[in-house]
Write a structure and sequence with these properties.
The mean pLDDT is 89. By secondary structure, the chain is mainly alpha-helical. 73% of the residues lie in helices and 0% in strands. The longest helix has 36 residues.
Length: 152
């Protein structure tokens, strides 16, 4: 059993490494230049010297594999890099946002349990009766809705 778990864990590591490489590759072939986008959002001029300096600052002037190795090394050491959007480290931004995210996830889970358990019990008690059909239909409609409809 331990051998099986070890093999699954090793395969998980290879899958995560491959997935990270794939996502990194996909983001690197995007047609937009992140430095030019950053300068555009700041309202700065597109000076080639400034662009070259910023690419060197963020390591974007290096080869793809060097960028990936630097990134994965930083991630494995717990350094997620600098957020261009916030101008702070990603770890700090996550530490600010994570408590509210956890509160929201816990609240939605509690609400889901409070609603779904009683409805599931009712559906089991009144199996194949009118109330069961109503609960099934509402559940089916709720599960079939695309996720973007819940956003405002």
């Amino acid at each position: 059993m331990v051998k099986y778990i070890f093999k699954r864990f090793v395969s998980l590591l290879f899958i995560l490494l491959g997935l990270s490489f794939f996502v990194f590759a996909m983001t690197s072939i995007l047609p937009s230049d992140p430095v030019q986008r950053l300068l555009a959002t700041m309202g700065a001029e597109q000076n080639p010297e400034v662009i070259a300096t910023m690419k060197a600052q963020y390591g974007l002037d290096e080869s793809f594999f060097t960028q990936y190795i630097n990134w994965i090394t930083g991630v494995l050491q717990g350094d997620l890099g600098q957020s261009v959007h916030y101008g702070q480290s990603v770890n700090y931004v996550l530490s600010l946002k994570l408590p509210n995210t956890i509160r929201l996830a816990v609240a939605s889970f509690v609400l889901m349990v409070i609603i779904s358990f009683p409805l599931g019990i009712l559906s089991a008690i009144y199996q194949n009766r009118f109330i069961d059909y109503i609960i099934r239909d509402i559940s089916f409609v709720g599960l079939s809705m695309p996720s973007f409809l819940g956003r405002s």
